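Sample entry (287 residues):
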Amino acid sequence: MDARQLKNFLTLCNTLNYRKAAEEINIVQPALSRQIQLLEQEIGALLFDRSKRNVTLTEAGLFFKNEADRILQDLKKTIVRTAQVHNGEAGEVRITHASSAMNTVVPSFLVKVKEKWPHLKTIAQETSNFEQVEMLLARKTDIGVAPNIMLPPEVSSKILYRENYVLILPADHPLSKQKITDLSVLRDEAFILPQVSTGVGYVEAILQICQGFGFNPKVAHESAHSIGVLRLVEAGLGISIEPVSSVRGASMNVKLIELKNIPQKASMTLFWLRDRQEELDRFIKMF
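Predicted structure, serialized as tokens:
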């Protein structure tokens, strides 16, 4: 059974005349009769009562007519919907991101998608570097955005921008009024950082900054989200280092010192599965 057989069946239902139906379909009458017989055999039900003068639908035939009509309508909708999904006019795009990315590139990307494809659903989820990679490999997301992320070989990426880091101190911290150029003065401070296991690549960059000044940070609290880090610093529970964009627009009682003179920079990276490059290219180009 295929869509052509269903269409021919419905044509006969509408005409209840084999000759007229065959002419409308543009096939010979014996071929149409054979199609209907094969359809009845496959279903295991008589669809038409036939006599020399009349052709009428059986009760089973009437039921099948209604269902066949629904099936073909659904198929037509599915074909249209599939084309819309292919052209980015429907469906959904899922993006995971770091806190700092929501302060920069993610909102503008979502706006562009909405303007170009208003019926496309967008799902944005903030999570850690580790979780972003896990979700991407499991195909639970389409693209990700994160700073200094370490990626497996099956993932493609491009750097969207690089920026300075910023030292975050409580507003009343003894160092808050000093001009800090040598970060070794922070060796005895309590740090607030993400877990190394979840902030893959990102935490390593912070450690590299500290190690460049001869010390390993003493981590007192762990938080994977910038807002959590800022709140903990504001409460006087420690200090932290974040990309500049992580603290953009933050209105908290903290002291921010941009680290302009260190070689390390935060590299905001867009990434996606390599084998989905062609499928996702229209979204990648919007960043």
